[in-house]
Amino acid sequence: MAIATHQNKEQHVLSKNALDILQDLVKDELVAVNHTIIDRMQSPVGLIPQLAGHLISSGGKRLRPVLTLLCSHLCGYQGTRHISLAACVEFIHTATLLHDDVVDDSSLRRGSESANALWGNQASVLVGDYLFSKAFQIMVEDGSLRILDILSSASAIIAEGEVRQLANANNLNTAEEDCLEVITAKTATLFSAACEVGAVVAEQPTHICRALAKFGLNFGVGFQLIDDAIDYGGAQATIGKTVGDDFREGKVTLPVLLAYQRSNKEERSLWEKTIEQGNVTEGDLTCAIRLMDKYKVLQDVRNKAKEYVATACKELEVFTEGQERNALIDAARFCTTRAF
Amino acid sequence: MAIATHQNKEQHVLSKNALDILQDLVKDELVAVNHTIIDRMQSPVGLIPQLAGHLISSGGKRLRPVLTLLCSHLCGYQGTRHISLAACVEFIHTATLLHDDVVDDSSLRRGSESANALWGNQASVLVGDYLFSKAFQIMVEDGSLRILDILSSASAIIAEGEVRQLANANNLNTAEEDCLEVITAKTATLFSAACEVGAVVAEQPTHICRALAKFGLNFGVGFQLIDDAIDYGGAQATIGKTVGDDFREGKVTLPVLLAYQRSNKEERSLWEKTIEQGNVTEGDLTCAIRLMDKYKVLQDVRNKAKEYVATACKELEVFTEGQERNALIDAARFCTTRAF
Questions:
Q1: Touching check for A155 and chain B: CB below 8 Å?
Q2: Model-level pTM?
Q3: Which residues contact A82 (CB under 8 A, 6 or more apart)?
């Protein structure tokens, strides 16, 4: 497939482990974030730490809290507030994952059985609410109304984006712009907030806060575009979710939209049968992937992701070169080449 | 049944319309709260105002925002902040109702089809998240960290209580104390927060804020005890939810717990079959209600509710007598006699 070639070429230029390097730079603080997370999800109601712990300890990349930590460093922050704020960001992310899995009825998350598969949808909805409330409690303790504003606005935009995605489901006439707006809302907004919080905690001037917010936003769009491509191009064992999940759920992601638009009349019937009518039978996913290959759809999605990441990296030019800046740039670029 | 007699006696003493009188006292402000609610639930994603509007306009009593408004008056508040804060309280309440109906798989809410029955569980989860986030955005605009603290803590306690209730489901060995703690968490905490916010916005000293918080907490427990009793003693048309819902869901509420504890060995098998094993067949609800009648369970639950309400009303003694104080006392007392 086109992607494989593309990807191999990239891996000579970029480090394979750019995300690991990112994590390494804030290793000790990430341990502190994890302690805060575990500490703050405790409850006399045993099901809460059990369920939340399952998801939180199941090997997520902690990309969003890492962004908060690293952005605060990039801004020269020396305090400790970024630890609990990074935990907040992860709590909000975890709450949305729990609710997402209920909405999508997913059985796998990060390669393990999802929380709703193990404990039921009811518990996932309620524990999600609990984590979300806890995130706000932690922010209130921190005491910055500006940060509360950033993260409550982000949460509203995320939920709005999820509802929009639900409303677009099965609709092959969704506009490409609509599709990108959903991605921006449901993924990029939290990336953006995570980065901006790092600047705000370091009391940076507006243009710096805005630059990091824009970096996060564009990085987030690129990240999600790749995620949507991977649903048609990854292997289940490495991506840790079920390949073809989006397909089976009738999600109109950019790969589907482009493939549908480029398909001839005969080929379109596959998309109409599966995505529109929700009638997915054996072999349909293979056919869908073949059409994406024929029309170089995943390649184009990946290229679009690269454009967003390039825009993201440009925002970091307000900072002088250094370890943190380079690590952020490498990580963002690496994400556009990842196959997992 | 015992309750009917009890109730008729009470209605001579208390106004039938104590809740209406409460609403009347803040009529104009309640109109402003409704405008704020409608205004703030707007979104370009049509499903959000559609679904939220269905629930919000379906004739809820607005008891919680009314408490915020009236408590602020009781404290002599003259400003306008209480309007948007009352809307916040209603948003949080509506979000929990949306999620509750998903968790309980309810088909009726306030006498109409529930949102999840009309738009599906997925939309209900996500729109609940949206309203919850919006509530926090409104609080951030208001700018009081103290109020953010009260309502984020309340939200966490509510979610924790809901998880606990889920964990207790089908368990007839739940302790009575556990059962009361669930009620306190899932209902009374928001009553308490709604009242306390009224005092905080009026910049009252700690003992006044605490008195109103305690009034709300005890009122809320009383209110929920009656709600749980009504599930076995109301008529579907008047209570606006399906009679026997709790029974079919295997919810271990205080009426069930008391009836089970007082039942003889033979009678206990009914509770074990229905509540524990979830095997509810025709005639079971009638038998359950008959047992509650035999053991005067609903009468006792109603008396317990009266005790909580008496404690609540005692807290209002810090205020001088007047229209607002009397209306709050009447409304709280009225709730223990309501049959809807």
A1: yes
A2: 0.91
A3: A29, A68, A69, A72, A197, A198, A201
